[in-house]
Amino acid sequence: MSIVAEAPGYLQVFSDGSVKRFASETVPDSAESYSDGFKFKDVLIDSSKPITARLFVPDTQGSVSQLPVVVYFHGGGFCICSTTWLGFHHFLGDFSVASQSIVLSVDYRLAPENRLPIAYDDCFRSLEWLSNNVSSEPWLKQSDLSRVFLSGDSAGGNITHQVAIRAVRSKTYQVEIKGLMLIHPYFGSEKRTKKEMSEGAPGDVAMNDMFWGLSIPEGSNRDYFGCNFEMQDVSAAEWSAFPAVAVYVAGLDFLNERGVMYAQFLAKKGVKEVTLVEAEGQNHVFHVFYPKSEATLVLQQQMSEFMKIH
Q: Active-site residue 154, yes or no?
């Protein structure tokens, strides 16, 4: 049995189809546990899949004010990571305090065992769960479902885009999405960008291609609609109904170019508000690797401000 795909330190895929993911430092479920001004617990979104999520709530000390809800999708090339990872946990817990919002961070099923569009299905399912449990889940009693924001990093930014399209088309839930916050979104295409063809790029290109090969449906290529946002059939009316979008990119991120292209694409399609924000001198998903850094605090403030005005 041989290794057919590998992200050293994170993932190995073997010739028999089996997958080995390497353990990262995690924060286990600790229901009703308070830490740094927030409490968290894990909830079950769908037992049949299964899909779980981690719920973060700021310690509002008896306040009765309604709080916006952020539904967050973690990154990891659709193949690795979890909301329980230390970096995600601290970033989202602290963000719930900074933004005074309830955060629902979804653990969707991972590829290659569950290829796209399964991650999209799972994450859209979380909106249905939110709508159905707002009156029965005590930790949602302060939630304002008329002010819901979708967010995610890397592959989670990609998922944010797809869930938003489905939400625009469905209009069946109590959830009203006010804005999207995509952090270092992960997109691609068969056509290479200038950065992808530059000297020194082959290693990054090969790693991205590997993750895409593991996550898109068998027989598809990188012009699959979930990879190449230009290939999806979205009507002018649907684009005009799109919520406000903030795209956060990092100056040293190999995916920076794709994030800029995405923001330009949305603006060209007539999305009513698109904001592009760059963190100069920062790398891909720096907020996960350094959740207590100054750059991460700035990102949390920028996202909080975006939420305040929408």
A: yes
16 within domain boundaries: no
Residues in Cβ contact with 224 at an 8 Å cutoff, skipping those fewer than 6 apart: 116, 216, 217, 231
List pLDDT tens digits, range 195-244. 999 998 999 999 999 999 999 999 999 999 999 999 999 999 999 999 99
Residue 9: inside a domain: no
Task: Quote the pLDDT of residue 22.
Answer: 95
Is 179 a member of any domain? Answer: yes
Low-confidence spans in the chain with pLDDT less than 50: 31
Residue-wise pLDDT for 273-287, tens only, equals 999 999 999 999 999
CATH number of the structural domain spanning residue 48: 3.40.50.1820
Residue 93, pLDDT score = 96
pTM: predicted TM-score of the whole model, two decimal places: 0.97
- Among the listed residues 82, 154, 189, 215, the single catalytic one is 154
Domain extent at residue 106: 27-308
Q: For the chain, how many structural domains are there in total?
A: 1
Is 8 contained in some domain?
no
